From TrEMBL:
This is Solute carrier family 2. Residues 1-177 form the Major facilitator superfamily (MFS) profile domain. One of its GO terms (molecular function) is D-glucose transmembrane transporter activity. It is a multi-pass membrane protein. It holds the Pfam family Sugar_tr.
């Protein structure tokens, strides 16, 4: 989630708003608007997550982020050729953040609760937390060098991560909406070990409540 480029968007938003000829004294309010977009998208995700499902929101979010990131890269390359390209790039920033809030931001945090039983859940959350803050540190540290080295193509590495995340979700991540942990475990086992007929060993309670929030 931290390598998909959303935090890098925040780092680059101010420069893009200035490029779009927004008065410098109002750029800070536009940047606050990017945070408002993510908050709005997260609220929408909370409403639709039980209707659409986690898997669809994750894949859809990463696919939309790939789409808007590609348009953003094209707008950066053509911003000197057309006067309206900076406005298109600014729109892509908001669309990218909205896609992130609806998909990965709203779903990723609850997956550890639904994919791991109570025995493994603390370790899973610990690994998730360490990975999240480590990747966030690396992105914040390395993004200025990426921006300097790749110029207009600075988001291509993040787009590759989004594509890989969407493909991984499609092939290996089961849908957890409204299912018991045993059902999720069996589907996860079937997706990751399609050639094996033996079912996973489950040593939990006989009756497991649904994961529906």
């Amino acid at each position: 989630m931290e390598l998909c480029g959303n935090d890098a968007v925040y780092s680059y938003a101010s420069a893009m708003f200035v490029q779009a000829r927004i008065p410098p004294e109002k750029v800070q309010y536009a940047v606050i608007g990017t945070g408002g977009c993510e908050l709005l998208a997260t609220l929408v995700s909370c409403v639709v997550i039980e209707r659409v499902g986690r898997r669809v929101l994750l894949m859809g979010g990463y696919c939309l982020m790939t789409c808007w990131g590609s348009v953003f890269t094209a707008a950066l390359c053509l911003q000197s050729s057309f006067p309206w390209m900076p406005y298109l790039a600014m729109s892509c920033i908001f669309a990218f953040i909205l896609s992130f809030g609806i998909g990965p931001a709203g779903v990723t945090g609850i997956l550890a609760t639904e994919l791991f039983d109570q025995t493994a859940r603390p370790a899973a959350y610990m690994v998730c937390g360490v990975l999240m803050w480590t990747m966030l540190f690396l992105v914040g540290l390395g993004f200025p060098f990426i921006m300097e080295g790749l110029s207009h193509f600075l988001y291509v590495p993040f787009l590759c991560v989004c594509v890989c995340a969407a493909v991984y979700t499609f092939f290996f991540l089961p849908e957890t909406k409204g299912k018991t942990f045993l059902e999720i475990s069996e589907e996860l086992y079937r997706l990751n070990f399609p050639g094996w007929s033996q079912s996973p060993m489950w040593r939990g309670p006989e009756v497991v409540q649904s994961t529906e929030l």
